[in-house]
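Subgroup meeting minutes
Present: P.N., E.W., G.H.
Scribe: E.W.

1. P.N. recapped why we're keeping a running log of single-chain structure predictions: easier to compare across weeks, and new members can see raw inputs and outputs side by side.
2. G.H. added today's entry (360 aa).
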Amino acid sequence: MTEDASSPAAPDPKRRRDRRQGLLLLLLAGILTAAAMILIVWNQLTPSSAGLSTPTEFEVLPGWDANRTAAALSEAGLIRNARLFSLYLRLRDLDTRIGEGLYNLDPAMSAAEIAAALVAGGRPRTTRVVLPEGLRAGEVAARLAAAGLGELTDFLARIAEPNELRPQYLPPDSGLEGFLFPASYDIPTASTPDEILNLLTQRFAQVISSDVTEALSASGLTVHDWVTLGSIVQAEAGSTDEMPVIAGVFLNRLEIGMALQSDPTVAYGLNKGLPELDASAGDFEQDHPWNTYTRGGLPAGPIGNPGAEALMAVLAPQRENPDGRPYLYFIHGFDGGGPIFRPNISLADHNRDIGRYLRP
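Output recorded in log:
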């Protein structure tokens, strides 16, 4: 039978084969392109440095979003690509969970590790302030203000009127003098004056252990008395070795009703430094609540902020000489050009040592 001229021609096997090959090539090209893009992206999210670890302090400031954080990380050499890292944070829903603060990061960390660290939150930036033993409250305030942690007037006002910062063992009308514990502090720079002063008073509170409470109860001293006497011992002592004897002298005087006659208390009440005291100008006769020459007992309150050694000396004083007689006097003088500390049991011995070690 003759084939009908109007029937469709049979498909060309070669053309079909070429079409399939073309599709396969396009598919293969797409796969290779996608793989290449994935490889590039993956490479951009790997550690920016495969070499030695070089820890870097990195800070996220308040208000930074994912883009700003990623840009700063890139500038610091901690990531390879800021745009991809920012996208990674968004895809993982981490962009709104970045914490401000300081981080220890490393270019040897992957993007995932850096992101996890940022989400965990950083530590606050701090300012180190060293408060030596014996500083007056005004000097403490000045150091805190000089460190850029607040205004001097704000610190002075809160020290004088602590209100809710007042520890329970502080008398109602007393300020924080004596309770700003001397130590080295790493203070978050964003702290308020109240937070900083609370940090100092809480450090003091750590000194009051159960043993201290028992010792105070046995001595008959209140916490305020203890700190007041500790501040005098701190101001009078030339070294920690002298502190137990000095504490013993003052405790013995208190016990028999003898005036403490401590020069540093007079200087504090007149708002003078110890070298500024002038006997000829009547400084020792001018009556005020801290003059332990004109008034008996302890002064109105602490004259500085004592350290742990001075406070513990009050609780473990050396009150007697080797013969068991109570110490009532002491002097700091010079013997052969070197400093000397001399405690005594009687006024006669005290005057003898004044002539021997203080007068030409």
